[in-house]
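Ligand-bound model needed. zinc ion.
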Amino acid sequence: MKDTPLTRRGILSTVASIFDPLGLLAPFTLKGKQILQEVCKEGTDWDEKLSEELRPKWEKWRLDLPKLATITINRCFKPKDFQQRKVEFHHFSDASNSGYGQCSYIRLENDFSEIHCALIMAKARVAPKKVVSIPRLELQAAVLSTKVSTILYQELEYKNSAHYFWTDSKVVLGYVRNEARRFHVYVANRVQRIRDTTNPEQWNYISTNENPADHASRGLGAKDLQTSNWFQGPKLLWKCGNIVENNQKFDVSSNDPEVNQASVLAINSTEENCLLNRVERFSDYKRAVTGVAALKKFIKTRKTKNHYTITSVEDRIEAEKTIIKMVQHKFFKKDIDQLYKQSSKCTGNLAKLDPYIDVDGLLRVGGRLKRATSLDMGVKHPAILPKRSHVTHLIIKHYHEKTAHQGRGFTTNAVRSNGFWIVGISSAVSSHIYKCVQCRKLRGRGKKRIKKVWIVIHMYGIKSHSYRDARRHDNRRLYQRS
Ligand SMILES: [Zn+2]
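Prediction:
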């Protein structure tokens, strides 16, 4: 390694030279970053010599650096010949005065109930220079965890595996699980970010001395890194069976400084129901989607000078997701809760669809087409909808009209190829076509013609009392004429 001068520039160069994109050495690099932050705080110039206080700290860390060479990490998460039956991800987060961070582990279980865990990704950051309370930093660390979880979901091929989140902060768990209280902007924004991609049921408590993310918030020397539980994860993960018990309650005290006292009684789920009620007033799916998109856009831009409600394609796609999600939460609440709670299996009525919850929180059909890369996500894993809901009705109506009032087969195909899986679709479509005014008119025309033929037959004195006979006569008359 190059010897760099004992200045701010030299320290930055050394710290930045460690290449660790997955953050596997995060607790170690954090120590270096913390020293750099202290140098910055002192206000020393780029090429000024280091102060006497910081010098020993830096030299100790610098001497530690070559020891990293002795650390080996298996490139494969899985031991040789290990056939996993279940895959889980566990994300831990923590914060201290000097920093905050998170670490994510993969937990594999095989048919013999043997467990294997490995660190797959971690992040450690120094605490901001501005003083921030520990609960706020803990919350920031939790947000970091959800970000890493999203990355892992997208990058790894384990789409149906469960993700769990752990923190030693009961305050944060209270914030995330809270339904009844409103918070100040800082906390509210971060809680919303957490709830956008995770369900409160996924969040669990772990004691501080077991939490491996503690290292990512305080930092470790090279030797301690090897002897700690950093690479293997806490003992808890290595236990057999289900390690998540979700019966603890975490409350936010009304004296919490983050609680907004003015409006304490706003409840999230009623808001959602209220919006769904609004959607149910629409009689056209496209208009309902545009309406929700415009509303969302308005809320987003209401504080800017020129708020506007013209929506883009992306806005409408987002709005469509919101509507589907609301319907699913109303009709499949039990299944969704179960999926979030018990790893990845659903045992309810939807079990045979092998459902899972995607990164946007939509309930989708699982199944065999997982690896078919040529297919669109919506076709491979359509979103599940109930048979009887207003939105389902609107969707069937929309695609029935789009296929120019074709029969059941065409309409069903159009709905499916646009990424919807309606439970009991054929009878739902049939009943819609039966009631469809346009189709009735078309059918009616046929009936009228038959009626006319029937009268003609009577005039000629042919005794026939059924439409079918009348139609037969009608055909025969045509043949005779030609
Ligand atoms: Zn029709």
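Confidence is low (pLDDT under 50) at residues 263-267, 477-482.
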